Structure to design on (227 residues):
């Protein structure tokens, strides 16, 4: 598992240096491992139910996972990077991946993300690397009706594009992180006419179907099937 972590880190760094798009983690196969993979989720309510769904999806495929989360409603990565509980969870070690998820609007705010998001992504990513883990970013999705702070001048697609770019820039800023493109999967569902089923009534938080979709993207990204 340590060799796998080293390989993944090198791949993510090399890929980010050569491209300007979010990167996926590439794993050669799903060879059985006597030790379950360990994943720590850091984020807020968008991540409440994804770890459990991910574990269930993996179990159906015979893949063992140990998941833990430090997810507090409404929290930003700035709060997490200054929180002893979050830092202690990372520093305990034993993680293969540390998933980093920002508050739902900040990555889409072009004038704010550089100071309110990027330094905290870098700090948490460095903490994860120091603990022997691969840090990955959780690219979330645009709200059903776009950012309400723009007073009806926004929509899902515009916000989703800004989020994608925000996470791409954050990945680059933090030294070349892999990005789990959940927001891209949501966009495909929206374009297929199934977007309404992904949201709770507030048009922001994921429904049970949205949680399952997010977990499936994590599983397919972190544990792709061999060719």
């Amino acid at each position: 598992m340590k060799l796998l972590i080293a390989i993944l880190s090198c791949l993510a760094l090399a890929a980010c240096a050569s491209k300007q798009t979010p990167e996926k983690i590439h794993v050669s196969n799903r060879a059985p491992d006597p030790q379950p993979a360990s994943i720590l989720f850091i984020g807020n309510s968008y991540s409440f139910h994804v770890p459990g769904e991910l574990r269930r999806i993996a179990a159906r495929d015979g893949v063992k996972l140990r998941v833990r989360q430090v997810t507090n409603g409404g929290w930003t990565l700035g709060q997490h990077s200054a929180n002893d509980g979050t830092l202690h969870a990372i520093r305990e070690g034993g993680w293969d991946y540390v998933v980093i998820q920002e508050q739902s609007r900040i990555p889409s705010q072009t004038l704010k993300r550089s100071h309110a998001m990027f330094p905290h992504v870098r700090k948490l990513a460095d903490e994860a690397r120091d603990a022997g883990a691969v840090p990955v970013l959780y690219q979330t999705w645009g709200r059903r009706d776009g950012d309400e702070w723009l007073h009806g001048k926004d929509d899902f697609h515009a916000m989703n594009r800004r989020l994608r770019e925000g996470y791409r820039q954050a990945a680059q800023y933090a030294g070349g992180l892999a990005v789990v493109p959940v927001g891209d999967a949501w966009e495909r569902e929206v374009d297929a006419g199934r977007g309404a089923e992904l949201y709770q009534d507030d048009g922001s938080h994921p429904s049970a179907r949205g949680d399952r979709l997010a977990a499936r993207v994590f599983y397919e990204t972190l544990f792709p099937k061999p060719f």
